[in-house]
Design goal:
It contains 21 helices and five strands. By secondary structure, it is mainly α. It has a five-stranded parallel sheet with strand order 2-3-4-1-5. Strand 2, helix 5 and strand 3 form a beta-alpha-beta unit. Helix 11 packs across helix 12, helix 14 runs antiparallel to helix 15 and helix 14 crosses helix 16. It is elongated and about 95 Å long. The termini are far apart.
Length: 439
Amino acid sequence: MADLFAASSSDTPPSGPRPLADRLRPARLADVIGQEQVLGPQAPLGAMLAAGSLSSLILWGPPGVGKTTIARLLADETDLHFVQISAIFTGVPDLRKVFEAAKMRRANGRGTLLFVDEIHRFNKAQQDGFLPHMEDGTILLVGATTENPSFELNAAVLSRAQVLVLNRLNSADLERLVERAESDLGGPLPLDDGARAALIEMADGDGRALLNLIEQVTAWKDDAILTVDTLTTRLMKRATKYDKSGDEHYNLISALHKSVRGSDPDAALYWFARMLKGGEDPRYLARRITRMAVEDIALADPQAHRVCLDAWETYERLGSPEGELALAQAVVYLALAPKSNATYVAYKAAMNAAAKFGSEPPPKHILNAATSMMKDQGYGAGYAYDHDAEDGFSGQNYFPDTMERAAFYQPVDRGFERDLKKRTEYFAGLRDKRNAGKN
């Protein structure tokens, strides 16, 4: 991916001091070399512009990757009037005014590109308000969101707009952005190689954050070249991108869970640490770790469940930060434990069968005859007491009479379930033997 930002055109002179991020905004879409998966010749926007047919869009990506800039330049490329609003500050009366102005503009022969920042902040009814104006061509909607559109936006809006995913900037992108800034500032930043790398790391993939950090560095007016120690003393690292109730929360817990399931303790510890660094509640992690034990390890290692509960209790007694170490130990234990989802699969299959045969009564021979009338009805008749049977196993049918016998639980040949597999096969053999003797 190449540089997302470029110097502005010089035909619009500044009217006063302008932030570095504003000065370095691209003047044309052609200057936005980054996000090639969206802007390249064969990519969605490149193809739309080449065909002269731009549809409504949802730009989904983290902060500081150029969503607003791309929307503004799309309006320039297509000669549409650009209107920008934020869902945070815009109410229904404001939207009505925007739509009325767009209708008048359309009557005079010019279309409107309406850019809605943080579009996911609009409720479902407000989002529905865009639909008729999108359908009749009054507006071309370009929404920007940091949240997963499939969770936050109406299906009707999504069906009328194409979702384009913008990526966080990598180190090479940010390095080129530093070079653009140095060109604008008229000289190199007063940083040694280590401090330069640290500055890029502090931005954490956010181009706007990087330019703001650069402005802070240039404001110090130091003649000496700054080292990593000096830079990190003066600057605070950008807060880790993490929203405990949003998309990043679900992304990271998914990464942690799948790393445990994939028996990778190092990756699991990394995602566990990422969530703690982002401010996640350790109790939430304790609950999810315990879920991993019952879902992905289960009877392959019955001890795993107990390890998680003990770690959870240890956290409650110790608190932070020492208690998190117990949770980390549980994460490592789970990652290295033998895996089985046999019980999980069996449970879901049993739930499906219960839904399908939910009204079928148990066979009468396993019902207690609590009254003489029930005994007359055949309750308990023919029941074989397993302790009296050969090998302590009668092999009787315990499913409803109208339902064929099912084999939900299929233990894997790993860990303790290897022993359980032998037991299930043993009882299955005995059952076949008993039933064969009855025929």
